[in-house]
Amino acid sequence: MPNLQASRVLAIVAAFVFTGGALAILLDDAITNWHWRLDHMLAVLIVAGTIATGHLDVEALTRRRVFAVLGFAVLFVAGTALIVYNSVGRQSAQAEAQRLAIEDRNARRAAVREKKETAEAELDQLREKMAAECATGRGPRCEGLKASVAVYEAAVAGYKAEIDELGPPEPVAVKADKTATLLSLLFGLDQARVKAALILLEPFALALFFELGSAVSWGYVFGHRRSAAAQVAAVSAVSGPGNNRTTDSVLEDHEIEALRRAFYAGDGRPLTNDELARRMGVAKSEASKRVAKAIDLGLVTKRRTGRNVAIMLH
């Protein structure tokens, strides 16, 4: 049982992580700028509704409610499609804006570098002419060449400053590029086509990962609550005129949870009736009744150890 409790805690953590990831993609601009619009609020509702309908669909399936199963399934699929559609749209818009910005900076950097190289070549020629002209003495032509050299030196310095401001060249879609290179080397695939496919698939993969991860994790979390209720329901279903069990012998959900919490608080070790009563906050007689019902339902067992009776949770 301690392992079961630990796995449930881990599932809760995973559920919040996956749900947070899905919402972070959908609400990136709202979180960054704190400017909420109607579509942001609808995104939160869609994520919550999709997770809920996925859980309710499983519940309806266990209860054999055919129309409810179909209805919740349609809602879950539609909600997942909406989340993926919106998520892919936002990721693609951001990726495209980033790509265009990088390509624009790279193009400007290349253009400025070309102008700088042209100006440097002109400057070198002017310096040679100035050295030859001014070697025989200062004259109008010498002064004119000096002025031209000063203009080109200023231009070259301006181009260098602009290049420094733009920074070094930036790669575009480097993850897809490197992965495509590896796949092309390993399997002989066309690198350009693989890169294009990876760029296209990345936002879909992220959206499905977080959406399905949140649905599965929350389903696992609530599944532990259903397991205890399912045992009670199974015993109740077989109770009938020929069975000594009555509805009074069935534990309520809150009583099952109280028993579980009591055992979890003791690290799952066997407990006495007095310990159970103290941890559940009930009288010893009420604890004895609950234990008797739980034994009748197959949820706990009792074993005598010396003078004490040890009660163990299955």
Structure description:
The protein is mostly helical and 314 residues long. It has three domains: 115 residues, no CATH class; 105 residues; 67 residues, Winged helix-like DNA-binding domain superfamily/Winged helix DNA-binding domain (Arc Repressor Mutant, subunit A), CATH 1.10.10.10. It has ten helices and two strands. It has a two-stranded antiparallel ribbon with strand order 1-2. Helix 3 crosses helix 7, helix 4 runs antiparallel to helix 5 and helix 4 runs antiparallel to helix 7. The termini are close together. About 5% of the residues have low confidence.
Whole-number count of domains: 3
Rough shape? elongated
Q: On the 0-100 scale, what is the average pLDDT?
A: 82
What ranges have pLDDT less than 50 throughout 5 or more consecutive residues? 234-248
Tally of separate helices: 10
Assembly status:
single chain
- Class inferred from helices and paired strands: mainly alpha
Strand content: under 5%
By DSSP, the count of extended strands is 2
Distance between the termini: 7 Å
- The value of Rg in angstroms is 36 Å
User: What does the main sheet amount to?
Assistant: 2 strands, antiparallel
Spatial sequence of strands, sheet with the most strands: 1-2
What proportion of the residues is helical, as a percent range? over 70%
H/E element sequence: HHHHHHHHHHEE
